[in-house]
Design goal:
- The protein is α+β, with helices and mostly antiparallel strands and about 150 residues long.
- It has one domain: Beta Polymerase, domain 2, CATH 3.30.460.
- It has helices at about 15-25, 35-45, 80-90, 135-150; strands at about 55-60, 65-70, 95-100, 105-110, 125-130.
- Strands 1-2-5-4-3 form a five-stranded mixed beta sheet, with helices on both faces.
Length: about 150
């Protein structure tokens, strides 16, 4: 497979991706209290029977980014990437984009597009940070995750 060439057309989903990117630059687009909206949904998603996730904590970062620390029950699982995207999809709005920034971090932009609502559309910026058990949880999980899913 050639990594330098692709096939693309002028039709959606490109329009929605562009609209989501444009909306994130509006000063009023990010919800002022993302924890109030997202943390209850994250708790529900993590508490579902069979969920591999345990919610460890949240922190509001500059720029309105909600950092979410979660622990995966099986950090060596080949499903780690799929499970992370599934967790984000479970709390996301109708439009979302996920960037796998490193082996243990996923940045997500999610929200409602102007084309989907009579209002201006609002959204959230999330940073899912995978942690591991034990005193050195994050470095340990990062090493396991890098072995399974190399960072792009």
């Amino acid at each position: 497979m050639d990594d330098f060439f692709g096939v693309s057309g002028d039709e959606a989903p490109g329009d929605a991706v562009r609209e989501l990117a444009e909306q994130t630059t509006r000063p009023d687009w990010v919800e002022p209290d993302p924890a109030a909206d997202l943390v209850p949904r994250l708790r529900v998603a993590c508490d579902l029977p069979g969920s591999p996730w345990r919610l460890r904590g949240t922190t509001l970062l500059p720029g309105g980014i909600l950092a979410v620390d979660v622990e995966h029950a099986r950090p060596r699982s080949p499903r780690l990437l799929a499970d992370a995207i599934e967790l984000l999809a479970g709390v996301a709005g109708p439009a979302f984009f996920v960037h796998h920034t490193d082996a243990a971090t996923f940045d997500c932009v999610t929200g409602t597009l102007r084309s989907d609502t009579p209002g201006p559309g609002r959204g959230h910026l999330l940073r899912l940070r995978l942690t591991g058990p034990g005193p050195d949880g994050r470095p340990t999980l990062r090493a396991h995750a890098q072995a399974l899913i190399p960072a792009p």
